[in-house]
Description:
Helices cover about 35% and strands about 25% of the residues of chain A. Chain A is built from 10 helices and 10 strands. In chain A, the strands form 2 sheets. Chain A has a 6-stranded mixed sheet with strand order 6-7-8-3-9-10, sandwiched between helices. In chain A, strands 2-1-4-5 form a 4-stranded antiparallel sheet, with helices on one face. The two termini of chain A are about 35 Å apart. Chain B has about 280 residues and is mostly helical. Chain B has a single domain, classed as MetI-like fold (Orthogonal Bundle), CATH 1.10.3720. Helices cover about 75% and strands about 0% of the residues of chain B. The interface of A and B includes residues 90, 94 and 111 of A.
Amino acid sequence: MGVGIEVSNLNAWYGTNHSLQDINLNIPGNHATALIGPSGCGKSTFVRCLNRMHETNPVARVTGTVRIGDMDIYEDCKPVEIRRRVGMVFQRPNPFPTMSIYDNVAAGLKLNGYSNRHALDEIVEKSLKNSALWEEVKDDLRKKSGASLSGGQQQRLCIARALAVDPEVLLMDEPASALDPVSTSKIEDLIFQLKSQYTIVIVTHNMQQAARVAEKTGFFLNGRMVEFDTTHKIFTNPSDKRTEDYITGRFG
Amino acid sequence: MRTFEDGAVTSLAVLATVLVVAPLVAVFIYVIFKGASSLNLAFFTHNPVPVGEVGGGMANAIVGSAILLTVGSLLGIPVGIAGGIFLAEYGRGTKLANAVRFTADVLNGVPSIVMGIAVYSLVVVPQGHFSAFSGGVALGIMMIPTVCRTTEEMLLMVPNAVREAALALGVPNWRSVLSITVKTASPGIITGCMLAFARVAGETAPLIFTAFGNVGWNEKLSEPIAALPLQIYVYALSPYDEWHRLAWAGALVLIVLIVFAVSLVRYVTSRGVMKGAS
């Protein structure tokens, strides 16, 4: 089941660049939350702070607290533990190129030492069904490389790979921006289905996409969160002038 | 006009290709021409015989080269790959990494005879005698820089997105490096190892002061041992026609064995790697 995320006083730096400033935010569990804003506003940095991927960059630094469920992710655990509870899907599909479709989905479990074959078979099937890819690949699970699929299929494969480790939260960093419209709509349908089981945070450039999939939307600008409210309110009656300017296309 | 330019560039490219391939083919044909006539079963089953006696072969040198290369590979490939992994995955941008990279490049340029003398004073002198082991060490050290630098280059070609994908699944960094990054780069790393292997397989100079050569059969690491390049060197410099013919045959066998070994490794390692991998 998805759990809520509480972010308080989150600050992040890349070297001397203060890229996130005093972010406070409550992301509800079992819902989809969209983060919008112009390029470089810090929304990708923000989601990377939620699974501590931010700190894989040696010049990066973070302060503040992030609680996912009952766990303070910067105090209570190691990065590898939190990344198993918080899955991530990246902007460009990044399947493991040397692995079969099956091994791509099983990778998270196998590399963490899980080796029950029978259970793995079931998890792989379930994950691929959950990511709406099963019907397209079930005959070549072990024959085809993950890299031989089309871009949209690869992205759904990456979603299946993230789902296979049974996370509570799924972070999606512009998951459809490298895909064609048909693949994009498939990913959106998927988000719609998955949000009953997972907490989903989706970064997007596409405001219609945010409006279609998310209950809540946050607007980021220059490293700060300007406004966070229900998606309906943000797109119809935003309280901040800057939000209104952005969604009406006056900048960004 | 465009068609003409296109044709001109294409023919230049073809010409360059021919110029690159021609010497190799010429050498290979010449060696076959000179060596094949002296090849017979005895060449592979008999040890060398004294001058004047008919027959004899290089069985001891073939086995000797195999032993030397095994020792060299066991030393050079793990050290080289580990060094390459350090350079690409752990030490990026650090002073130690720059020092390691610089050392590897310099080591690559050290003449092979110098490597032989160095190993002579470091291994042979303390041991008190020439040995197959010291020859293997000399070859192994010569393999390290090539293996190390190609491993680094190949790992750097693995997109960062692949590393991030593994880390985001909660895979520990060391596991991600070994199971994902190195595996993704493995075809290139194997090519680097084969390149280093083929290069030292033909080395004579580092063996003169270490493996030393042996007219008889030896498979002990502690004793001097024969090697194909050494045997070819000695026979080719001799004044006897019979030995000259055997040297040509040895050269042919050496080339064929290297090609065979490299192809075998490629074949074995290419199975299991997914087709369509980028």
